[in-house]
Design brief:
Elements: E1 26-30, E2 37-40, E3 45-47, E4 63-64, H1 66-73, H2 77-86, E5 92-93, E6 99-102, H3 103-118
Antiparallel strand pairs: 1-2, 2-3, 4-6, 5-6
Helix pairs in contact: 1-2
Length: 119
């Protein structure tokens, strides 16, 4: 699980009329069960959006060509194809010869890299 550690509870999560001193501290963003949640110091998990998922880069198509994935990750086209072929970046076969990368797979790959860096 990945954690980012900001210093305090976000103001929009403190009830009206309540002091943020009484609220649990924001401990980071976690992704159990494949969905993104805010994690608080008391162990509370709050979905980032209704249903517990977040729409990554909604301006992008649902499925990206590998070349577009390379652009988004700022890596070379060849490297992107290697990552797709190895399965490090999820892809979907759309016909006999072509694969597409779900836009969520970009975030999954980045989370994977961050988890590796922290290990």
């Amino acid at each position: 699980m990945h954690h980012e550690t900001p210093s305090s509870t976000p103001p929009h999560l403190v009830a009206e009329g309540e002091s943020s001193q009484n609220a649990p501290d924001f401990a980071g963003v976690v992704r159990p069960w494949g969905k993104f949640f805010n994690l608080f110091s008391d162990g509370t998990l709050i979905p980032l959006m209704t249903g517990g998922s977040v729409d990554i880069a909604p301006e992008l198509p649902m499925l990206l060509m590998v070349e577009k994935t390379a652009d988004q990750l700022r890596i070379g086209r060849t490297r992107a194809f290697v990552l797709v072929k190895s399965g490090e970046i999820e892809s979907i076969k759309v016909d006999e010869r072509r694969r597409r990368v779900p836009r969520e797979a970009i975030a999954d790959y980045i989370m994977h890299l961050r988890d590796q860096a922290q290990a």
